[in-house]
Write a structure and sequence with these properties.
The protein is mainly alpha-helical. Among the domains are: 73 residues, Dna Ligase, domain 1; 82 residues, no CATH class; 134 residues, no CATH class. The strands form three sheets. It has a three-stranded antiparallel beta sheet with strand order 1-2-3, with helices on one face. A two-stranded antiparallel ribbon has the order 4-5. A two-stranded antiparallel sheet has the order 6-7. It starts with 11 loop residues before the first helix and ends with a helix. About 16% of the residues have low confidence.
């Protein structure tokens, strides 16, 4: 009894079915397998080996019987999975003396053609695959760049947001706790708020007086309180070390306002300023007149001709405990001199500039018309041989001459012969007719370009004013003014 080979072996199913087990991926065929002529088949254990072919004759192919119980033996060196058998060894070729032979199943020509076609096909496929991979790589690169961009933007946004939050927390925590008093304050101090003072200017005044701790704290409260714009100029009695909100509330409370401030408005007459000084300081009219007469003590320059009209700078003046009418008026005069010097007005021209500016303020309270009114004054003064004959004919001067401060002069006013009646006397009046504003002074120094000789305000409510270069044009404009006065008689009545 012979020993069966260890491998390959047949299963019981194969034995009974009569089909051999094949260990190859190649298609199964029941016909005999032809081995190469120059190869030597190696029998399985228990199978006799075929005799080698001679050098002169071709060896017949070794075929195993296709009988039940016997499997075809694969050639030596062949792969169990169907790989082709290796070429004959060098010894085999040289010992036989014959050239190596190729199996008839694989022709040379067709093999070469197949390899060429396969190489060409493979190369084309590889090229297309590489191009596709490159496109995909470029797309991935673009996507990475886009992702990177958005990531950077997001990171920057987060950093900025975090910085803002940190700053806001730091700022609020520091400002609310360190730049403001907790309040409610103690003691008492008087603070003067100037006319048209801004929130920052008021805050600075309060800081200097020890009322609030910082300008910033007060400005924050001022900006978020709409009623803050209604703070009136004047002197207020406040506590020290107040909170910013408390100080603002105190300024809006009229009961805290101390009437110890002399306020001069633009265009205000000397008579009105005198009465204000009398009321605030509690002095007599004689005391004020004595102060005005002492021109040296009040610093009135010689070009004023001894008359302080027009030389008292508009503004708010706090009256101190040691103030007298003389010291108070001296501060007003010095303010006007400093302003004229700052605007480059020569001492010899000061009085003339103040007279013209006071007329501009008396005739017009709308800024855009002031340079035009200043031009009319200059044109009329130069028109000595024309329609106006050098007469200003200004209503403001006529009213000043009769002691009135507003309205339209009536016929009696126009007929009143006094030095300030510019309808009866050519040229400028002898003195200013009020305290001119800085805007009026600037208009006189820089009048508008034009040939106007006349102007008339046709609506006293809106201030609408029409300008004319001829008397004919002026008469047409005056018809509009007459219609307005007919509809508003009280407004046009002088007082």
């Amino acid at each position: 009894m012979s020993t069966p080979p260890p491998y390959p072996f047949r299963s019981r199913r194969e034995i009974h079915s009569g089909e051999p087990k094949v260990y190859s991926d190649a298609p199964r065929d029941n016909s005999s397998v032809e081995s190469p002529k120059d190869s030597v088949s190696t029998p399985l254990h228990g199978t006799p080996a075929a005799a080698p072919a001679s050098a002169d004759t071709e060896a017949a192919p070794a075929v195993a019987p296709a009988s039940v119980g016997t499997a075809a033996a694969p050639a030596r060196g062949a792969s169990r999975r169907g790989r082709p058998a290796p070429l004959p060894s060098f010894d085999e070729v040289t010992d036989s003396g014959a050239a190596p032979r190729v199996s008839a199943s694989t022709p040379r020509a067709s093999s070469v053609a197949t390899v060429a076609e396969t190489a060409s096909e493979t190369t084309g496929m590889r090229s297309r695959r590489l191009a596709s991979e490159r496109r995909a790589a470029r797309k991935r690169k673009r996507r990475r760049r886009i992702r990177s961009f958005f990531i950077i933007v997001l990171v920057l946004g987060l950093v900025a947001g975090a910085s803002y939050v940190a700053y806001d927390q730091l700022f609020n925590s520091s400002t609310t706790s360190s730049d403001d008093y907790p309040g409610p304050g103690s003691g008492s101090v008087e603070v003067t708020i100037d006319e048209e003072a801004s929130g920052r200017a008021i805050g600075q005044t309060l800081v200097e007086a020890g009322v609030v701790k910082s300008v910033g704290a007060f400005v924050r409260q001022f900006e978020k309180t709409s009623a803050a714009m209604s703070i009136r100029p004047g002197t207020y009695r406040l506590k020290q070390q107040m909170s910013a909100s408390g100080a603002l509330a105190a300024l809006l409370d009229e009961t805290n306002r101390v009437d110890s401030t002399v306020t001069i408005g633009s265009g205000q007459k000397l008579s009105e300023v005198k009465q204000r000084i009398i009321d605030i300081m509690g002095v007599s009219e004689a005391d004020v007149d004595a102060a005005l007469a002492d021109t040296e003590a009040i610093g009135l320059p010689s070009e004023a001709g001894g008359n302080a009209e027009g030389w008292l700078l508009p503004g708010s003046y706090e009256v101190g405990e040691t103030d007298t009418p003389t010291t108070l008026i001296a501060r007003m005069v010095k303010g006007t001199i400093d302003e004229l010097d700052r605007l480059g007005v020569a001492p010899a021209d000061r009085e003339t500039v103040l007279i013209k500016a006071s007329i501009v303020d008396g005739e017009m309270n709308i800024d855009r018309y002031m340079p035009m009114v200043a031009r009319v004054i200059d044109n009329r003064l130069a028109d000595t041989n024309g329609e106006t004959k050098g007469f200003l004919g200004m209503d403001s001067t006529v009213l000043y001459g009769v002691g009135k401060t507003s309205g339209v002069p009536d016929q009696a006013d126009l007929d009143n012969d006094n030095p300030y009646n510019t309808r009866l006397h050519p040229g400028l009046p002898p003195t200013p007719i009020g305290q001119p504003s800085e805007k009026a002074i600037k208009a006189v120094l820089n009048p508008a370009d034009g040939t106007w000789l006349y102007f008339v305000t046709v609506n006293l409510d809106t201030g609408e004013t029409l300008f004319a270069s001829t008397l004919e044009e002026q008469e047409k404009n005056r018809e509009q003014f007459k219609a307005y006065c007919a509809a508003n008689p009280k407004v046009c009545t002088a007082s």
